[in-house]
Amino acid sequence: MRKFFALLSVFAVFALMALPVFAQEEVTIAELVVASAGGDAPEFTVLLAAVQAADPAILALLSNADADLTVFAPTDAAFAAAFEALGVTPEDVLADTEALTEILMYHVVPTTLLAESVIALDGAVVGTTLYETALAISVAEGVVKINEASVVTPDVLASNGVVHVIDSVLLPPAEEDDMMMATEEPMDMMMDAVSIAETVIAAAGSDPAEFTILLAAVQAADAATEGALVAMLINNGPFTVFAPTDAAFAAALEALGLTAEELLGNTDLLIQVLSYHIVPGHFAAETVVAVAGMSEEGVNVATTLPGTTVTVMLNGESVMVNDATVIQTDIHASNGIIHVIDTVLLPPAE
To answer: What domains, with CATH codes, occur in the chain?
Structure first.
């Protein structure tokens, strides 16, 4: 606990010393970057040029007032060092829209992670808006690292998320050898599918019906959040959802000694439980299996419940998420993917 508060103190000192004057919760992340690049001591000038040269969807995302994002923003010095190390010019990079878009997407996490949550994710990975990719978070001697980049200024707040300034450019795994690689997962690859929320609604109304309790839980939590939860599951993402079956919910209710009505009436608990089933990023079954096989103890993956992770691991030929077994995979949606599990995931007790 002392180490945790010491790290928070380090973050606070950095924030007081280096927080840009343009940081305001009333403006979007895109507006923060523009204001910084045009300030008296310009910063993020290369990042701004990159956003302007990339797929217009990047600027639209960072400008979306309804988005919920974490951006790890490299400084101008970080970009200069990356160009030199890779033997490329800024003009080369800015001219390759597809590769540039991938790189920028790799710096964006589709949920808000404040400094406290980032610290709590020490040793975990968190998904990005670039399909099938994640960032590794580590904390040592008061330094928070995202892959190999150090956070130099945390918690620059915006109306649609938060920016953490980093000292190195993050390169997607496939980009490390070839910065000019073409995009394999276009941003609109799943636009012919319906959203995660609409997928759950359709399943609950089908014959045979499934996800009826999950839908009731989402609707109850959505009412408590004034429509924010369903809006997130329709418009934001990408997300990977581990969706419990109706049988899984029935077993959980019995084990907890609760009725469905009692669970649905406890909206604070309900929101926590649902958030714990949602993972930022798009992870198809093939990727989940690969990640699970990286360690015998499994891999901790961040959820949208701040500061929490689920452990993904292999048990023979089965993929486990905590104590749940994945029983159906790759239900595609326009803003992510659903994997069906046989047990409800319960967040760690506070």
So the answer is: 2-175 (2.30.180.10), 196-341 (2.30.180.10)
